[in-house]
Amino acid sequence: MSYRSGMLYACRVALAIFLTPVASAKTVPEFSTAQVYATSVQVERLMQSPSSVEAAFSPDGEAEALVLRVIGSAASSIRLAGYSFTSPKVVRHLIDAKRRGVDVAIVIDAKGNLNSTSAQALNLLVNAGIPARLVDRYAIHHDKYIVVDGKHVETGSFNFTSSAASRNSENVLVIWNNADLAAQYLRHWQSRFNQGVAYQSSY
């Protein structure tokens, strides 16, 4: 028996025990077969929820691979918030998403991206038609997450840099198919994007 099947069986047994009438207890309510079935269906739907969680780590390459897979899964929208932003692979995957019709936009820290490598990455994005804004309202804009299609969330310690992929000890967590969580991240992302200043390409 699989773990899920076992859990469903245990829940049904618990429900059956709880709903069995007790002769000496006049206050125990009576439940119809339809009510018991409806409750059982609710439990089964909960156990079969499509939402799932996936984790990966660096510097063994798995963290970056998962981030790129999240970007590659996008069908309609990508919203990225970051601190340091220099990764050529992330840039390439974002541009590829834009070219296949995905609505892509990013917001990153202003002070953490004053170097030429960040400028090169941002120039490529903006010249590909991807809006990028810089935030300097805080000591640092240290957010690191991606929201895809309004339902998938990637987060963790992973900066969008080559160092995070191959030199640092980092973690990436992806919550798939959780629109409620994604909505919270999107509200936060929009507030930071509204505070940002649009990056202008230097060439």
Automatic annotation (TrEMBL):
Entry EC number(s): 3.1.4.4
Enzyme class (EC, first level): hydrolase
UniProt lineage: Bacteria, Pseudomonadati, Pseudomonadota, Betaproteobacteria, Burkholderiales
Protein name: phospholipase D
Keywords annotated in UniProt: Endonuclease, Hydrolase, Lipid degradation, Lipid metabolism, Nuclease, Signal
Signal peptide start and end residues: 1-25
GO biological process per UniProt: lipid catabolic process; phosphorus metabolic process
Source species of the chain: Pandoraea aquatica
Domain PLD phosphodiesterase: 137-164
Domain of life: Bacteria
MF terms (GO), sorted A to Z: phospholipase D activity; RNA endonuclease activity producing 5'-phosphomonoesters, hydrolytic mechanism
Family under the similarity heading: Belongs to the phospholipase D family.
Catalytic activity: a 1,2-diacyl-sn-glycero-3-phosphocholine + H2O = a 1,2-diacyl-sn-glycero-3-phosphate + choline + H(+)
Pfam families attached to this UniProt entry: PLDc_2
